[in-house]
Amino acid sequence: MLIALMREKTVNRHSKTLDGGGICPRRASCADLPLPENPARPNQVFKHWVVGGALMRILTRLYKLVRPHVPAHIRDEFAIVAADLLRAQGRLMFFGFLVSIPVGIAAASENAGPFIGVGLPLLLAAICVVGLGITLRDSTPHEKLASSQSLLTKTWIWCSILSVMATTWAIASWATAPAETRIYYPLIMIVGALTMGYCLASIRHAALCALFLMIVPLAIMLFSTGDRMDAAAGTAFLIAGVFQLFMLDRHHALLVELLEHKAEARTLSRLDPLTGLLNRRAFLDDGYVMGAQGDAMRLMLVDIDNFKAVNDRYGHDKGDEVLRRVAQLMLSHARGDVAVARIGGEEFALLGSKAQLDAAVALQLVEEVRSTAMPHGDVLTVSVGVAEGSITDEPSWRRVYETADRALYVAKREGRDQVQTGQCPPLEDAAQVTGDAKSTSRAA
After folding, report:
1. Phi first, then psi: what are they for 255, rounded to 5°?
2. Are 95 and 209 in contact (CB under 8 A)?
3. Where does the record place the GGDEF domain (predicted)?
4. How far apart are the C-alpha atoms of 264 and 257, rounded to whole Å?
5. Residue 24 in contact with residue 16, Cβ under 8 Å?
6. pLDDT tens-digit series, residues 280-311
7. Cα–Cα distance between 332 and 181 in angstroms, integer?
8. In whole numbers, what is the pLDDT of the chain averaged over residues?
C-alpha cells in the first residue's frame, strides 16, 4: 500500500511538471508520454553520413593527388630520377616559353597598357632564363640527392610564380581586348598550362599547382561572362585539366612501380638465392664500406667439411637443406653490423668489427654445427679460418681475405672441425700472399 502511494505521488509530481512546461496536455505517467515523431531524422542522419563520407573520400583523393605516396625505401632514388627527368623536360619547357615571349608581346591587347603588354612578358622571360639556368646545372655525384631535392623545390617555386604572372597577363589582356579577339588569350594559356603540366610530371605537386593556377582562374573568368560559348570553352578547359590530373597520377604510379622493381632486382642481385645470405660480390663490396669506418675488422671463413660426400650420398636436394641449416646458424651470430654471406658452394663468411664479432664466435660455430641435428641425419662439421686487420682499400681487403683463406686451408690440413687464425702480412708481401692464397685455395 505504501509503495503504491509513493508511486502515485511520483507520477503526479512528474505530470505537474510536464503540464507547467506545456509539454504534455494531460496528466499521465512516463509510460503514457508519446515519443517525438520525426521520421525524417534517420534519413537526414543517413544523408549526412553519406555526404560526409563522400567528402572525406574526395579530400583524401585530393591529398593523394597533391602529396602522392612514395615508399620510404625508394624515396631518395625517386627524388634523383624525378630531378633527372625534370632537367630534360624543364629545359625544353623554359626554352619554349622564352621563345614564345615575343609572340605574347605582339599579341597583347592594345588597351592593356605597357605593364601588361610589355612589362609582364619581360618578367616572364626573366623567370624562364632563371629556370633554364637551374635545369642546365648538373649535379655532382657526391651531392646528387641534395642537389636533386633542391632542384625540385626551386623549380616548383619558380613555376608557381610563372603561372601566376602568365595568368595575370591572360586575364588582363582578355578583359581589355575586343570581344571578337579576346577568346584567343585563354586558348594561349591553356596550351601553356598543359605544356607545363606535362613537363612537370615528375614533380606532381608542382604540376598540379601550375594547372590550378592557370586553368581554374581562366574557367571562372569564362563562366562569369554568361555567354554560352565562353561557358563551353571554360568547361573544355576544366575537362582537359582533369584528364591531365589522371595522366599525372598514372605517370607517378608507373615511375614508383619501375623504381620498386629496380630496387627489388638490385636486392636480389646481392643475395644468394638458396640461403638468402649475401652473395660473394655483395660481400666483397660491403667489406670496403664496413672497413671505411676505421675500425679493426675480423673475418671468418667457414667451410663445410666433406660436403661433397653429403651430396653424393643423400642427393643435392638434401645437400641444399644442409646449406640452409648452416646459413641459419650463421645468421644467429649476425648481430649489429656483422655481414653474413655464402661466398662459394659450401663456403660461408662472417665479417664485422672486432668489437661486434667476437673471436669466440668461431669456436661456437664449430660446436653448434657439430651438435645440431642436420636434415640428412648425420653429424656435420665445419672448419673456420680467421683473420684480423684494417680494411681501408682494395689491397688491404685482399690481404685480410687471403689471410683467412690460408688459415682455413691450415684448418683443413690439420684434420678439419677446428678453428685456425692467421696473421696478416705487411703490404710489401701482398704479391707473394696472393700467389700463395690461390694455390692453397685450389688445394682446398
Report:
1. -65, -45
2. no
3. 295-424
4. 10
5. no
6. 999 988 888 888 777 889 999 999 999 999 99
7. 78
8. 83
Give the count of beta carbons closer than 10 Å to the beta carbon of residue 96: 14
pLDDT in tens, 201-218: 988 889 999 999 999 999
- Which long-range contacts does 278-284 make (Cβ < 8 Å, 24+ apart)? 278/339, 278/340, 278/341, 278/342, 279/341, 279/342, 279/343, 280/341, 280/342, 280/343, 280/344, 282/341, 283/339, 283/341, 283/343, 283/349, 283/351, 284/397, 284/401
The answer to whether residues 388 and 362 touch, using CB atoms and an 8 Å cutoff, is no
Order of strands across the sheet with 297-304?
339-342, 347-353, 297-304, 382-389, 419-421
Residue 402: partners with Cβ closer than 8 Å, 6 or more residues away: 433, 434, 436, 437
Owner of C-alpha cell 578547359:
237
Grid cell listed for 130: 632563371
DSSP per residue, 80-102 = HHHHHHHHHHHHHHHHHHHHHHH
Residues sharing a CB contact under 8 Å with residue 50, sequence separation 6 or more, in sequence order = none
Q: Which residue's C-alpha cell is 663445410?
A: 304
* Contact present, 186 and 171 (Cβ < 8 Å): no
The residue length of the chain stands at 444
Measured CA to CA in angstroms, residue 282 lies from 93, 279, 333, 393, 404 at distances of: 41, 6, 19, 16, 18
Q: Angle 415-420-426 (CA atoms, 0-180°, nearest 5)?
A: 135
The neighbour count for residue 51, using CB atoms within 10 Å, is 10
With 80 as the cut, is the pLDDT of residue 83 above it?
yes
Cβ contacts of residue 314 below 8 Å, gap of 6+? 376
What nine digits make up the cell of 249?
A: 597520377
Place of cell 638434401: 318
Q: Say which DSSP state 278 is in.
A: B
How, if at all, do strands 382-389 and 419-421 pair?
parallel
Which of 111-120, 230-239, 284-293 bottoms out in mean pLDDT, i.e. has the lowest? 284-293
Gap between the Cα atoms of 125 and 228, Å rounded: 35
* Marked catalytic residue, from 260, 346, 347, 394: 346
346 is catalytic: yes
Closest C-alpha to 275, from 314, 304, 309:
304
Phi, psi of 119 (to 5 degrees): -60, -50
C-alpha span between 32 and 28 (Å, rounded): 6
Rounded-to-integer distance, Cα 14 and Cα 21, Å: 11
- 3-state class (DSSP) for residue 416: coil
